[in-house]
Fold each of these.
Amino acid sequence: MGRHLIRELLRHNWAIGAFDLVLPPAQSAGIDYRQGDIQDRATVEQVVKQFLPEACIHLSGMAFVPEGWTNTETLFSVNVLGTIHLLEACRKYAPTARVLVISSAEVYGRQSGRRPVNENDPLSPDNPYAISKAAADRIALLYARQYSMHTMVARPGNHIGPGQSASFAISSFAGQLGDIIAQKKKAVIKVGNLDNQRDFTDVRDVARAYRLLIEKGRPGEAYNIASGQEISIRSILDQLCKIAGTRPVIEVVPERYRQPEQRPRLDTTKIARETGWKPEITLETTLRDIMKEAADSEFNSPQTD
């Protein structure tokens, strides 16, 4: 998300200060980069004090859901304490900043009912990652009420696009297909559960949503972000294979398999009404861009999903 958000902000004349655990090898001109760990309260306070931001988009976090079960202590340190560190730093040194904390649609859990969930529906997180995000979500909204800060929350669904880690299914598929095209591996692609349905939004559309929220979003409010269109993982893989021009053997492996689950659809009426946002990039375009990057790259995809 970071690189896409930077491009979106630059296109709309924002001056950018970037804070990251690892600095990019090729740094964009005109961006003030600082290195540090969101878990280090003193460093976070120092950076906010130096930047004195007008707005802050809090992307830092552990985002791979299965990792929450195996690295739970770090998950809560990064996702919850890291958020508190940032909010406290802004409260002290940039109290008028518009702060957008990135939560997740995972906070809703497995909601029953046929209608899409809206931002006023109860949170029902059902895995460590979702619980950590729900805690950060609630804390951010609490700061708006308690300290009259302009804190907001974004609850995006799944987003995909060029540059995503191969830990995630779609990028993993594309990486494996890229290796097959380059004849680096046999025409076999390893997958998990292909029957789960997901709502995928292009990462560049989500970046635009974040930019609009820091410009137009209201303090103390949460906003769902999604395309509104569900599709099976199997259908995504079929489309990637078609784009790649290959029909590999599909091998389901236990370490990638997730149990069947149905996540709720998101109601995005609120963000559309208040900011004018709606998704603009088609799924076909997204998949072609992902596949192009994978075909051009030299890496071998990690065997994870």
Amino acid sequence: MGDRELAIFGAEPAFKVPLCVGKPNLVSLPKILANVTHVLESRWLTNDGPCVHKLEQDICRRLNVAHCIAVANGTLGLELAVRALVSEGAEIIVPSFTFIATPNALRWQQYKVVFADIDLITHVLDPEDVAAKITERTGAILGVHVWGTPCAIEPLTDLACKHGIPLIFDAAHAFCTEYDWRSIGNFGACEVFSFHATKFFNTVEGGAITTNDAELAKDLREMRNFGFVGDNSHNVAGIGINAKMSEVHAAIGIANLVSVTDFIQQNTRNYLEYRKFLQHESLHVYNVNSISNHQYVVVELIGDDVSADVLERVLRAENVLARRYFSPPCRLMDSYSDEYWVLPVTEQVAKRTLVLPTGMSVSLKEIDIVCQIVLYYVEHAAEIATKLAEENNYG
């Protein structure tokens, strides 16, 4: 492959149909349609119906957790969890290397967001920097299991216990992953999952909060339904919102959950294929050191000559819709740029990270072609950068 063959310089793209990072995984349409048809025929479309109950029970069994509270989406799950556990206006420590929904769920409710740095290898919260950020105003620690890699759970738990504050986990990436032979979903005060369409297990839109605390589960169930106590629509115990998952979304989730093992096996196969081919001193394929769902294939561009931004442009021209999670990190977004945070590892990781397509819709042959493009880029990065600069100057 020469640069004359790269689509960014005018050649035909390598793929006619775009390859996506998170194309939705769905079981056979007949199974989904049968479940949805049953819901529509029942006329019970929302309001804590039987499909929501079944999905919650199935998730509890899958994760071996005591309580699951299905919600309309992961962002609302975070809002409920924090509202149930943290005093109004308190500081909450979070990573800046995460999807913007994580800090937004806090800022939306007038909590003070305090950004902490991450570990260079794992990309999850650095407990030492978290410890340095704790003050008398700290109301909670909110860790994020990025790429499905569990946070440093034991050190963070110790910190939370020492300071008497709750520990919450954003587990949007981590459904069906494990830490110390226990499923994510069993740690901290509670954990919040996203079942958005781009997640390897999805309900189209949706999420869930899991906990082993019965009292907290009761509070969360009331809060997701306007604050009503149980089925008593005349008794509101406290302030709540409408965060209920619909029966249609739950029905799709029930169908998809049956195939979760197949999804994970395909993701793992894809991950291993990428690792086999992407061998280069300028590339590092992120390694998940736990039982993982492998729903993200993450590469880091190492060295001065290579650029994750340029590689993204090269791949997108080939119809490979790679993504620059999470660049820029949250602290550099306009809504959080009013305060300066020193997060050197976050900046370094965000600068060099790129996520490649995987999932049930991506074949090994397609992965091999993507790898060829990536390897060609890192071998000819300087030449490609020069040519792109010339085109910008004379275009």
